[in-house]
Every structure is written in C-alpha cells, then in structure tokens.
Amino acid sequence: MLFRQLEYLVALSREHHFARAAQACYVSQPTLSEAIRKLEEELDVPLVRRGRKYEGLTPEGERIVVRAQRILADRDALKDEVGALRTGLSGRLRIGSVPTASGAVSLLTGPFCAAHPLVTVEVIADLQSEEILRQLQNFEIDAGITFLHKALSENFQSVPLYQERYVLLTKITEGLTQRTTATWAEPSRLPLCLLTGAMQGRQVLDELFAEAGLQPKPQVETDSVAALFAHVRMGQWASIVPYTWLHVFGVPHGMRAVPMVEPAQTVPVGLVVTAREPGSVMARALTESARHTDLAAALEHIPGDPLTQ
C-alpha cells in the first residue's frame, strides 16, 4: 500500500468525480483509477461504487477514507515536525474562517508569520461554521476561526480571541449623525442590507434582534461583508456589521458607524483546532501564537470614528 493510493482515494471522495480527482492529484484518470483498483485488491474489499460514472464510495470505502485522511495527516505532521527540527517551522498553514471574522484574521497571521517566516499561509475566508468543523475533521484545514457561543464537541479545542460586537452602519444623512449608540429597534425601522440567513453571522444577528422582541426584514441580503459596505455607500440602505471590519475599511467617508446597545450583546470568536494528539505542528504553533496575541486589545477601538474612540 502506497501513500499515493490513499491520496487518490481521498481526492475521489472529495471531488466525487474521477477526472476532477485525477486533475487535483496531477495524474491522468487511468493512473488514478488503476491505483484505486489495486488498493481494492490489496484490501480485498470494494471501495468505489462503479457504474457508467462515479456513484460514490461503498460503506467500506467511506470508513477507509476516514482512516486514509488520518494516515495522510499524520504523515504531513511528521514531515513538518522533522522540518521544524532541522530549519524551523516551514510548510503551509491552512486557516478557515467565517466571513464575519475574516477581517480580524490578519491580526493573528501577522504575529505568526513574523515568528515563522518560512511558513506560507492560506486563508479560506468564506466558510460557514459547520463547514469549518467538517474540514478540520477531514484534515482539509489546520485551524478555524469561528463563533464559540455554542458548545464544541470533545473532538475540538478552542482558544478565545475576542468578543464580537456590532455597529449600525449608515449614511450620515440618516439622522443618527450625533448619536453615539443605537438600539436594536432603530435599524428595524430602516431599509436594511444584511447577510443571508444561512450564514451564522446573520443567525447571531437574528438572535439579538429576537432578544429585543424584533425580527429584521432586510430588503437586500448578501454573503459578503464587503457588499454590505458597498450597499450602504449607495445611500439607500443601512446595515449592521461586525466592528472588526472597520479595521479593514475604517469608517468610509460619508458614513457613520454607531455601536449597537440595548441589548449590548457580544459573541465570542475563537481559534478552533482538533483535539487529536499529537496533532498538526502547524496547528500547535498557531495555537501558541494565538495565546500570546491580544486581539481583543487591538480591536478595542473603532478606527476613523472619533465618537467611538
């Protein structure tokens, strides 16, 4: 049994298509198919349900893919560990983030890269919380940044990073120019642009509205925080955005960012990694960096808006 056979099987499970799996592994489709066929012979069990096209893995194949993912993750962790002993940590760190937290990721990757200059970092910033946990379990990412207000299973461990809070983003002409805070009732009376209902960031907002006895009815919904800013700039809508994104865009000219109160709720955001030991050397290094990085202090003030300093 060879590592590449396991890699091909994992790729097929991920891509659900022989040609795409072969392309992802930089081999021809016949090469990938033959390697998986030989793996089936070695294990004496069918792994793939074959018809005129790929029909999925067999029950045995599904179980073996989980084992294969663990074996490949352990191989990569071993290579990273040996490399770190020789020349310092190197390789690729893969971070998945919910979109609303992605504006704060650089405050974590900056110190990490300064401490580990040989590491390259890939940030996937458009994942839902459930997808982050799935990819962690399947060793597709090394760490995730997501909300921590719901209990994680024993398969994960977390490091709190900061408390997410929200601001009402409006054009200066909205009549809130001199206000230093806004209640949750006020945006409910404005034409709103919010995140889509499937995103956990929106679900958190809906819970906060519900605590105030309100239900938002946005005219525009999007899966992009940047698009929220763009719609507010048009002057037709207001939005509620995570204050961390003001550290990316500042408070754009002609807009006001008013902290939300009544209730002045916050939601914990943190770094999540698998609880498996010894685990990824990348995940361990990022966790250590996170414990020594005070994101909450860096995000304490909203830049560019003197009323919130």
β-strand percent reads: 15-25%
What's the total count of β strands? 13
Major β-sheet profile: 5 strands, mixed
Q: Strands across the major sheet, in which order?
A: 4-3-5-13-6
Label the overall shape.
elongated
Radius of gyration based on Cα positions = 23 Å
Order of helices and strands: HHHEEHEHEHEEEEEHEHEHEEHH
Written description of the protein model:
The protein has 11 helices and 13 strands. The chain has helices spanning 3-15, 18-24, 29-43, 59-87, 106-115, 129-137, 200-211, 225-233, 246-249, 281-291, 295-298; strands at 48-50, 54-57, 91-97, 119-124, 143-147, 156-164, 166-171, 182-183, 193-195, 220-222, 239-242, 255-261, 267-274. The strands form 4 sheets. A 5-stranded mixed beta sheet has the order 4-3-5-13-6, with helices on both faces. Strands 8-12-7-11 form a 4-stranded mixed beta sheet, covered by helices on one side. The protein has a two-stranded antiparallel sheet with strand order 1-2. α1 crosses α3 (29-43), α1 (3-15) packs across α4 and α5 (106-115) packs across α10 (281-291). The N and C termini lie far apart (61 Å).
